[in-house]
Amino acid sequence: MSLLGIDIGTSGSKVMAVSADGRVYTFQYLMHETRHSDAGHMEIDSSRLWNNVQELILRAAAATKHDPVQALCVSSFGEACVPVTKDRKILADIILGTDCRGRSEIDDFLNKIPAEDFYRICPNIPGIQYTLPKILWIKKNNPELYRAADFFLLIGDFIGFMLGAEPYASTSLACRTLLFDLDAGNWSDRLLTLAGLPRGKFGRILSAGKCAGEVTPVLAEKLKLPGRIKILAGGHDQCLNALGSGAINAGSAVCGIGTYECITPVFSAVREKKDMFRQNLNIGCHVVPELFVSFIYNQAGSLVKWFRDTFAQKEKNEIPQDEIFSALSGEMPEGPSGLLVLPCFEPAGAPLYVSDAKGAITGLTTSTRRGDILKAIMESSTFYFYEALEKLSALDIKTENFTVTGGGSKSDSWLKIHADIFGMPFIRPEISEASVLGAALLAGTGLKIWASLKEASVLFCRTDRIFFPDREQHIKYQELFQKYKKLFPLLYQFLRKM
Q1: Which structural domains are found in the chain, ordered by start?
Q2: CA distance 440 to 215
């Protein structure tokens, strides 16, 4: 029997079918457009996304006729939701977390509860990007839509519902709504009451790997699937990314390098929530039982893309996209660049949450070359994460090793920079599409194909290459990092006033 993983990202959807003995049968990808407006609105067409997922399942079904799919699971980006009716009618498009709507609504909500009291219930740093402010905005500005919506379902859980499951919310996605009680493992009655939202608008909570239902016979026939396909609750893409790359033990972490870079450290307990709160760091459920994660994220790939578009137009037009940075890396200096970059060209994520974004490149001379600038961008975007992990380590949440995934994981130079700065190994797995793989592994474990997530992980999470740190370079980077820590707040405060 084969297992199906589905991953919904902000720019496209993926599907992967795997066998019980460790083989990948197929991997497919379809893009969906993100709509931007001058008013700051950012949306994805819900119906097109659902149609794309159906097309991907059809392709996977065709590739697994010899070993039919028995179960599926969905990974997705967090925060955003879809309003639907109980008879599975899609009522509106997806408002992304980066959309500007909901600012006044979240401010009004936070006036009703002290910040530390909120964090003790739902340990996130509240902001406009979460589910709650978007729903409150809809309630206030589109009351007809709000009343018509029987449920507001998070993206991955919306796909499960459309396939045939009863409404549910997977735990790691529910953590990102601002309505979840982490200790109770359920929706918070207090937060729902303060928000003026009925519990009935949200699905039942399901932990990762629990059965949510079955694909309906009508859809199974339409999608060329065998009957009685189990739908297993999935979760947040960064948690599935950790599972699919082997970060399933306390002390491990996954580093996903894409348009944004997200480091997800894995830990077993938090000594004091208030300490995490003071460092602006969230606590969420992993998809692995009894483990927790924190999401530390900032632009990284988008800065490198800006460099390419600004300094490498000729190469952009002449060299295949996936080979440009390999060509440009040859121009980077052997050791640290000596330059420092304020890596906040766009709004930054945890733990700084920079909204009034501006960046800077310092230390330029007439002898500076573009290779120096490229390496400085990679170095300083890595310093951003190194500083956050320093804070976690001070709270006795240690990280001992990293696995690395995403498009940026293909760059040997960038991974070597990470290893030298952190002073620890960075492991590149053979399968870099770890979120969709993690969903497939969760489906198989939920169906008892494998006895545990560890068994599934050992079967699939094989190492391609380990990037070990150079001790001498690490010492040099420690000196440059101390300069970065002093310069960052000064530059940030100065640029805010411009």
Answers
A1: 2-239 (3.30.420.40), 241-496 (3.30.420.40)
A2: 16
